[in-house]
Amino acid sequence: MSYNKVLDTRTFAIVTLAAHENIEHIHNRMPVIFKSDALATWMNAETSKDDALELLQENRGGDLAYYPVSKDVGKVANKGSDLIKPIA
Fold first, then answer.
1. Contact 46, 57 (CB under 8 A)
2. How far apart are CA 15 and CA 31, in angstroms?
3. pLDDT digit string (tens) for 7-32?
4. 56: burial class by Cβ within 10 Å (0-12, 13-18, 19+)?
5. CA dihedral for 81, 83, 84, 85, sign (positive or negative)
């Protein structure tokens, strides 16, 4: 494989932490969801380890809204925005 081929490869990682107390009753872990202003700092190679760890804690989803949805959302064959509509 040539060096240029490696540079064209795109990858990603999902960083998870213990769930914020607001949603830990749903699941004990959750992905970090960076706010747009924090993402540039996270991706900057000059960001210190302490600053990166602080960013993780600041982006644990404390401001997320949640509500029950249909169990159909868990079936991969189902598609559409109706799946995320709140149910009573």
1. no
2. 6
3. 667 788 899 999 888 888 889 999 99
4. middle
5. positive
> With the C-alpha atoms ordered 49, 29, 75, 80, is the resulting torsion angle positive or negative?
negative
The backbone torsions φ and ψ at residue 66, rounded to the nearest 5 degrees and listed phi first, read -140, 155
17 Cβ partners below 8 Å, 6+ apart?
A: 29, 30, 32, 56, 57, 60
Task: Read off the pLDDT of residues 54-87 as tens digits, 9 standing for 90 and up.
Answer: 999 888 888 888 889 999 999 999 999 999 999 9
- Nearest partner of 60 among 82, 27, 29, 36, judged by Cα: 29
| Cβ proximity of 29 and 46 under 8 Å | no
